[in-house]
Amino acid sequence: MSAAERTARGWPGLDLLARLPAWSRFVLVTLAVLACGVVASRPATAAKDEPLTGDAAIASAAVDALRHPSAADPLAAFPADFNAVMGRSPSAVPAGDGTLRAADPSGDCSGPAGATTWDFDLSCKSHDLGYDLLRYAEIKGQPLPQSARRELDTRLELDMHDRCRVNPRGSESQCHAVASVYAAGLEFNSWRQRWSAPGHEPVLAWGFGSAVVVLLLLARVPGARARRRDEGPETAHPAPLPASPDRYATFLRLAGIGLVVAGQSLLTLSRWSGFGSQWLWVAAWVLQAVPVFFFAGGHANLLAWQAVRADHGGYGRYLTGRLTWLLRPVLAFVLAWLVLPLPLQLLDVPEDGVELFGRLIAQPLWFVGVYLVAVAATPLMAALHRRARLLTPFALVALMAVVDAVRGAHEWRTGGYTTLVLGALLFQQLGFCYADGSLARVRRSAYAGLALVSAPALGALLVLGGHPGTAVALPGDDAAGAGSPTALLLVLALGQLCLVMLLRERATAWLAGGAPWRVVHYARTAPMTLYLGYLTALAAVVGSLGLLDSPSTAMTWLLISGVPRWPALLVLLLLPLLRAFHRFERHQALPLCRTRETHRTRLAVTLGVGYGALGVVGFVVTGFAGQAGSLGGLQVDALQNLIHLLLGWYLVHVARSGACHDRGPWLLTALACVPPMLVLEPTSSVLALHGATIAVALLASAAKQDQQRAPEHWQPREALQHP
Q1: Closest by alpha carbon to 422, among 397, 390, 388, 389?
Q2: Would the pTM of this model clear 0.70, i.e. be above it?
Q3: Which of 200, 360, 439, 638 is paired with 77 by a 20 to 30 Å CA distance?
Q4: What residue stretches are annotated with the Acyltransferase domain (predicted)?
Q5: What angle do CA 45, 49, 53 make, to 5 degrees?
Q6: Sequence-ordered alpha helix ranges (H) in 438-526
């Protein structure tokens, strides 16, 4: 096979990785995971830019006494209740340079060699006592600034090198080398913890979780021999394709998500700039095209399910085809954004702006998570559509109203997510009606009348009902409250879908032209490339307007006070990433589907879609930083989100390849569910979900493995591999 043919079958980077020796693949993947883990494990900044008062101010003065030792007693500057709060009993100890150092004689020393070789013991214990002062201030509710920990680390480094000169023990060069290595490790750990107070970290969970991420990635990257086997025969015949795609429905799917992303960015930028977003409520609701996206998505999902059934396929084959095209670019995007901030943080740019921008980027991923649920529910909802075409939408509306009432009466946080899912299923159900031609039989005058009525009705509900001007949470908002009241959502959907049907004929004629359809076709085959291009332009706008740091001019766009401006650096990093994603999406091709409809296939794809959706929506809640969050009662963080997303991606792959009939994938699935249970305080929901998955995976691995892989066959590409 020629290089061009290989490129057409898959991403060249993956092919190159597969051709490397197994040990080289292991090293490269491990290094990449460690880099992602370092970024993801960094906690949110705790220090606040405000004057210190009370006990925190006294603790800051005590830290100053430790940073600048003298002959005066450093304990005189300590808070009165420090010993009681921290359980320490420090004393003033004379040092060899004539100064007094505060140290706890019974405390441990985390420095190298301690008192055994070069006598770093006193300096090390004084440094550790300084860390206790940082923890004390955090307990008091006013964390000390980052400079406090920086200078404590610098003090220890200077003291160690001083001891090497005063007490070399015949090996001064070795002593300086040990001191330099330890100082570098100390600085790295302090940087990783954002120079805040050291705290208890789930080291076991993070270490085990990183190992699981490595295993999931290595299990998904085949060797060269497996790659050649997966390429399959050149004479494979594709399955029958459905009728020619509805260009208008394809356009609606892309336009719907594009309008929501643009509207959310507009509101976020207006908030960052100080321009009140309440003045933009009209534009916000015009751009709130959530119903249109799921309406058009329902059309695509129903056609995909019908195409698989016509080709004698089932639920497992349908889900693997629909999910593979979606999870691969999303996972690549998430991995890229976990690594992308690393150069910015190494340059010590302000992390607040980078974190806020990262949350803005992660926010639209809730679309993907909810859409995964809608895709998985399509066979069931299609059956309901056949048996109760009119009753099903009204039942979903009633459920939304009940959830909305319970949510308002009992402050049910999970109700927001439930409303989003029910709304997506409702709009998908209307998309089924569009796909079978039911909506085309309604008179245009009826659509026009309903569209005219919906606009003033929506305005009245907004003004008289006192509802917010937007239904989508912005970065920093509570994601659980993202769902709007049911009445508002239904009126908005009514108006938008009526307009969609009114414009159908003209838009279809417009898309029949060559140029418009070529643009739409490119957008649906490279959505993440377009999104990265949009983010590049957005970062340039944020940097130019100084929305997250300070306004810039042509001369200060790259540097400000000698420090690189993070938006400019982000743009420079995004440009080569754009090229990589373009090649990834344009050249990716799905491997042959070797699965057959078995219990293991259906179990694998069901768990895959569940954990994939959990991982995607988890990043919406936590962002790409190290802070934790709550998702429907589940405590999640960046590493757990990554494991969930990788596990979903892996399970869909093993179902598609037929490997779900082997024992290994199920044992790896059980292993991947262990890290979330190793956090410091796992909740009952976390234990229940992952414990149940472990039990099911072990049962699947222990059962008799008598399923054979089916003959190779292709999926219906147009119906399955694009949104």
Answers
A1: 397
A2: yes
A3: 200
A4: 251-560
A5: 110
A6: 444-465, 486-502, 504-511, 514-525
